[in-house]
């Protein structure tokens, strides 16, 4: 957990650090909520606590009857009844605190959803009318200008603008949104800072991204997740078992010639049924979602968060996740007869106008290594030849000089190897493998040498970029992928957790293999197409595995939808955001790893508290059973292993412990149990020790201590 | 406790463990339809039976069809057994001329033998003729046991299969269990018993004059054949009222050992079948180890309690060194009697070689606890395995989340449906056991049958319902159970305890079979190691055991504490 909260704290989106556990802004309203939640119609959603409420109401009626008739020991009864209601209030309080954190976030989101009016465009493209944003339908086209809030979610159909998305992401640096491509999605509630765009509305009123986000963080329409439902069934089943165990006692006691009061039976029942986990279950779920939100990831359903814990395979895009976004030039490798400096010079010239990070890194390398300064293109009457998908080359034409750089086979084609390459059967494979097969057949020695160098670079995981000047091959630039620091350790940790990592890359297999080895991923998918990605997911799923991936492009959408956990980048297209079941507001693909950890932590917290709750029962039996039967079977006093002062104090202590343990565990429920990236076996051993054996032992000490206090205070 | 006693116990445990694997291998092949050394002999018989019954052995069944087949078969068996008892006076092979069994008793007995309980509200030698003993009771001894094995196979297939619609064919499983497993094992055991002096005859009783000149009727009949399957099929219904304490059922220490081994043989081997079928024998060993831990603990407590004897006797100048010998046969002694009592209740057998009623309070509590847990310690043939697997599902669901994944067992995700069905199955035992006891001890009809006062009388009633619902069939004795009330309520307990566990269990089998199997990784909950065994035992004791803590406190526990203080009941 430390690791996660630290990252949240230092992350660029510290927007929703929703205070500490003791934030009075949350605790205050939560107290009020605790009482409102006593409404049986709300309570019935939680079978265990509903049972507690039913018996609390019953004992209250009995108590009032006793008060009216003046029968029985009212003082003791009143305390039991009081603690029963406290048990309920504590449970409600846990839920209210968990919800409160989300509500605070929702409130701040709501502020941004101000009522705006939109400039609706007519079919002719002119502003037809001003309409309130809430009346926009999908398909409407609106004009948004600098300073305007974008009225609803949509797709930019015309223009380019910088948009401040701080309302959604908490990141104040504006982003570019433009028509076409993968950056066309805009979100309602964000603000256009410069220029003007036409936006086609894609969301129906009330179901915009912001609306969904508000209802998600607020937990308003929180559905129970599959695992939560199953756990509830288990808890309900156990409650029924204890109903039988307790309801048969009066008959057994009557046979033995004694009797057991309703109050005592209720006390035994409430302490036996799994109230601890029953009280905290929904708080755990809400807090899990909340942890994701504070991590700037929105899960569209709790189901997705659970699925994240179950993930077996992570598909990670190489670029941006495993390696730094950009490849960098690290070396100039000239052919025989060409000096390194000449190659660097030409390479720099060819890259002068190349604004891609790769191009800039070439210029920088030439300058750093050989002191070649960038030159002014205008002075040289140079004309930049940009990269196109057809030529797959870029370069520069100056007076009489033609320099080109590009993929090895593209450059070879450029210098006249075209015929030979065609003869080999159409499009050449990308650098490495193509080069390898061609080395032997290449006739020209320069070409052969170039291919050999290219192969060496590719094998090392780099990308070879060939440079040619005036139809003459000069050499190769080694572009290197820089693997992110610390990523290898993270993959090792994932492996410990039993999660397989698969690197997805458009690189050729040789390059991919080298980077995969360097980064320590378990497998890689090279030359990945959207179809290959989708197929990979299906194959993994057919093997019974759960797959998580992230993506942003429209062509990622099918794979995002197919994956069990699909994290769409907020910077991505609307299609991608619709297809995924989580949205990462920071658009940081590395987060997939933390998302898995949060999912696991959620499940672990549930399991730990369930185990703790059930293990508690042993001590409670030893407290109440002897007290219950002491009147007619004094021998059973031998079972009073805790040496509790009196039957009344024993029963009262057990029920007080049962109520207080809920409060004591609220912080754990909200924070989640500590997660470590170790194998299941050692996790289990540790958690069984803490929550299993701890759950057995703690109540013995707790009940004894409360008994001493209760007796000292003279409460019984 | 003596070294000799412990050696007997340890030899027994070693033999059970040694038999599990070879028998498991044989049964795995049998139920997978592979060839075994018996195939040349029994294969044609099996195929002939299918042709006769019109069963397509290749046609697999959906769990619902499987369940309906099983229910129809059991209903038909119960009806037939009821009818046989009601008209036995008109049927041949009745040398003693036994009259028709009264309706409530016949109903109770029919329910009892069909559910593999073999609770006997009657005395065998004074109620049932040879034909009913053979065609009625012994037949049910075979097929109710075979049904249990078949059901376990269905659940195991649920774990073993991936994305499958079917869980096997009930008729095929039933036939194979009877023909390939029970008959071939029962035959040599029966012959062995005959060799050791157990009667096997169609003749009637022999009248004899004793040395004192009194006349005595010595009952005889086809005892050995029924005795073998009584143990092997964990049935437990004795030919004689005294059951395996009777010298004609269990003449000596050697037959006693063979009988105790026969009770555990198939149940223990089924854990190995489970392991083999899911492709990892260690999974089976883990289940057996959990059973073994609970078993050894039970034997230790029971043997200790019996070896202590009754402290009150010391005041009478009685030598207590032999332990508590009341209700025990001198040819077996304390250790073998305690062992037998724990084995017969750990499994769902219910045969007895000593009177549990006469055990020390804590000694008698161990059989009760064994049954309250649902007889999952090796358990009834088949029933023990599926009962234990249901507990494994509960254990994994409670603690499995702690590894940060949706709980899964053998790669099968445990979701709402499995949990719901498991809880249904787990619930019906306490409802029947505690519910009926509460009714019985609160009514005069119920208490009138009790032979003893105080907590001991209470224990007698509790034991009866626990035994019925758990489908054990052993009696604490001391309870006059042949009354309308007990016959009917115990029959209901037996039927619910059997079929309301089975149907949800089959639903789980069907649901699991349809799931894909997630491959194990470092992140999955390991279910083959000591940690899992410990967890499983813990959950069984807490979930299964704590339910009954109040009931036990008012019975054997208070009786024990009272005894220590000098009060006996």
Describe this structure in words.
The complex is a heterodimer of chains A (about 725) and B (about 575). With about 725 residues, chain A is α+β, with helices and mostly antiparallel strands. In chain A, strand 21, helix 23 and strand 22 form a beta-alpha-beta unit. Chain B is mainly α and about 575 residues long. The two termini of chain B are about 25 Å apart. Helix content of chain B is about 65%, strand content about 5%. The model of chain B has no long low-confidence stretch (mean pLDDT about 90).
Give a brief outline of the structure:
The complex is a heterodimer of chains A (716) and B (569). Chain A is of the alpha+beta class. The longest helix of chain A is centred in the N-terminal third of the chain and has 39 residues, at 74-112.
Could you describe the largest sheet of chain B, including whether it forms a barrel?
2 strands, antiparallel
Order of helices and strands of chain B, N to C? HHEHHHHEHEEHHHHHHEEHHHHHH
Averaged pLDDT of chain A: 83
- Please give the share of residues in helix of chain A: 40-55%
User: Count of DSSP E strands of chain B?
Assistant: 6
What's the β-strand tally of chain A? 22
* Oligomeric state of the chains in view: heterodimer
Individual helix count of chain B: 19
Low-pLDDT segments, ≥5 res of chain B: none
Q: Strand order across the biggest sheet of chain B?
A: 1-2
Helical amount of chain B: 55-70%
The rough form of chain A would be described as elongated
What's the story with the biggest beta sheet of chain A?
7 strands, mixed
Distance between the termini of chain B: 25 Å
What is the residue-averaged pLDDT of chain B?
A: 92
General shape of chain B: globular
Coarse structural class of chain B = mainly alpha
**Gyration radius from CA atoms of chain A, angstroms:** 34 Å
Low-confidence stretches of chain A at least 5 residues in length (pLDDT < 50)? 1-19, 418-440
Tell me the greatest interface: A-B, 76 and 69 residues
What structural category characterises the helix and strand content of chain A? alpha+beta
